[in-house]
Design brief:
The protein contains seven helices and eleven strands. It is an alpha+beta fold. The protein has two domains: 124 residues, Alpha-Beta Barrel (N-terminal domain of MutM-like DNA repair proteins); 125 residues, Orthogonal Bundle (Helicase, Ruva Protein, domain 3), CATH 1.10.8. It is elongated, with a radius of gyration of 20 Å. 40% of the residues are buried.
Length: 278
């Protein structure tokens, strides 16, 4: 599943090519996504101009305005689901089997949504992102000043939940999915099975720093290529080559050489080192 670094990589890749451009045509080949494509999407978008792209957690926000309106008149909310990607194409590039939505731009470019599993969606927010319930319940961004060890420590008190699913709770912090939670816990030296409420403040300071380090590194490497993820320009991410624990159960720990162990936490596979993580 595309996580925060993959969505941020997509945003950075497509932004220079779509921001400020007018949408001249909208092609919907498959409307039956996880959230059905709005029936009036075409009439809302044609003639609108794309503003500055933003990201909130794993959502991509595309603000739109029309020539006779002041400021934004609505926002496209895009989620890549399990296997989705937004890619850049040009007029004349034939769509592939799972290319469901095209935004054709005034310079001949195309923003093309590809999603084999159709677990993603594109939705229209007429009043902008602020009132939307899907965004209102989210915690702080992990790379923002609002996220630190103090927040993790305070929210974890009296919590018996294991620290890994606690870290993946979007009300605690957004965008720390399975891959990056596992990697951050390894860097911080914390056993993912340990109860969240039994971890000291100093260790949460290290964990918050590790989350920042892992996500920043993943973004700089273009995300993690798992199955068929590619960024907006069609390039794969390379952070997979730097993974310390995720997907490496049974292999030797890169730090101490011990065999990495696999457990299930919150119905998700979790790999860790029993010697380096306590």
């Amino acid at each position: 599943m595309p996580e925060l670094p993959e969505v941020e990589t997509t945003r950075r890749g497509i932004a220079p090519h779509v921001e400020g451009r007018e949408i001249t045509e909208v092609i919907v080949r498959q409307a039956r996504l996880r959230v059905p494509v709005p029936a009036d999407l075409v009439e809302r978008l044609v003639g609108a101009r794309i503003g500055t792209l933003a990201r909130r957690a794993k959502y991509l926000l595309v603000p739109l305005s029309t020539p006779d309106a002041v400021g934004s008149t609505g926002t496209l909310l895009w989620h890549l689901g399990m296997s989705g990607s937004l890619r850049l194409a040009r007029l004349g590039d034939l769509p592939k089997k799972h290319d469901h939505v095209d935004l054709v731009l005034d310079d001949g470019g195309i923003l093309r949504y590809h999603d084999p599993r159709r677990f993603g969606f594109v939705d229209w927010l007429a009043e902008g992102p602020a009132p939307d319930a899907r965004l209102a319940r989210l915690g702080p961004e992990p790379l923002s000043d609002a996220f630190d060890g103090a927040r993790l420590f305070e929210m974890s008190r009296r919590r018996r939940l294991a620290v890994k699913p606690f870290l993946m709770d979007h009300a605690v912090v957004v965008g720390v999915g399975n891959i990056y939670a596992a990697e951050a816990l390894f860097l911080a030296g914390i056993d993912p099975r340990r109860a969240a409420g039994r971890i000291a403040r100093e260790r949460y300071d290290r964990l918050a720093a590790a989350v920042r380090e892992v996500l920043a590194a993943a973004i700089s490497q273009g995300g993690t290529t798992l199955r068929d993820f590619v960024g907006g320009t069609g390039e794969p991410g390379y952070f997979k080559q730097r993974l310390n624990v995720y997907g490496r159960d049974g292999e030797p720990c890169r730090r101490c050489g011990a065999e990495l162990r696999l457990v299930t936490l919150g119905q998700r596979a979790s790999v860790f080192c029993g010697q380096c993580q306590t």
